[in-house]
Design goal:
Blueprint (H helix, E strand, L loop, with lengths): L9 H26 L14 H8 L12 E2 L7 E7 L2 E11 L4 H14 L3 E3 L14 E7 L2 E10 L2 E9 L9
Antiparallel strand pairs: 1-3, 2-3, 3-7, 4-5, 5-6, 6-7
């Protein structure tokens, strides 16, 4: 009677070791990607943009809402990531706030802060605001030689404030 071999060959052990190392490496990379808000692995190729993402995330206006505003549930951490918005690939950092003071108070608050910090108002591509429904309000400023957009968007009883920067430093971001 012939016996079947019970052990693995050196070649098989080597192959298993390589596959195991690849799986562990992939798990570590996915964990790191999740901790960084998806910046390492994204379909829009955000590799190498961490420094720029940190820069647009540190704009003080993102954390200075009008008095009486409170961070919206689920938005306690600034949302940072890559977007593909109307064929513009960009980095963004956004926070949402609940606010009962009205849209005019939000616009006035950020206009005062933005102008004092050197931001310039930019016209919205959405055209004039529909009656009672404010459109995006945008300001622009150069940070490290590339344009950054500060955008306010509105929902009933809430607003979002965010910064956006094109992945290609030569491109700007439209409002």
């Amino acid at each position: 009677m012939s016996q079947k071999p019970t052990g693995l060959t050196v070649w098989q052990w080597g192959a298993l070791t390589v596959v195991g190392a690849l799986l562990v490496g992939l798990a570590l990379l996915l964990g790191l990607n999740r901790m960084l808000g998806g910046l390492l692995l994204d379909e829009d190729d955000c590799l190498g943009t961490q420094a720029r993402a940190e820069e647009i995330s540190s704009v003080p206006l993102l954390g200075t809402p009008p008095q009486g505003a409170r961070v919206s549930e689920g938005w306690y951490v600034l949302e940072v990531g890559c977007l593909d918005d109307h064929d513009e690939e960009l980095l963004s950092a956004t926070r949402s706030y609940e606010f009962d003071g009205g849209h005019d108070a939000v616009r006035d608050h950020y206009r005062t802060l933005a102008e004092a910090d050197g931001w310039t108002w930019v016209a919205s591509r959405n055209g004039p605001e529909p009656r009672g429904l404010p459109g995006d309000v945008c300001y622009e400023k150069e940070l490290s030689g590339a344009p950054v957009l500060l955008r306010l968007t509105f929902d009933p009883g809430a607003f979002r404030v965010g910064t956006e920067s094109a992945l290609d430093d030569d491109d700007g971001v439209s409002c």
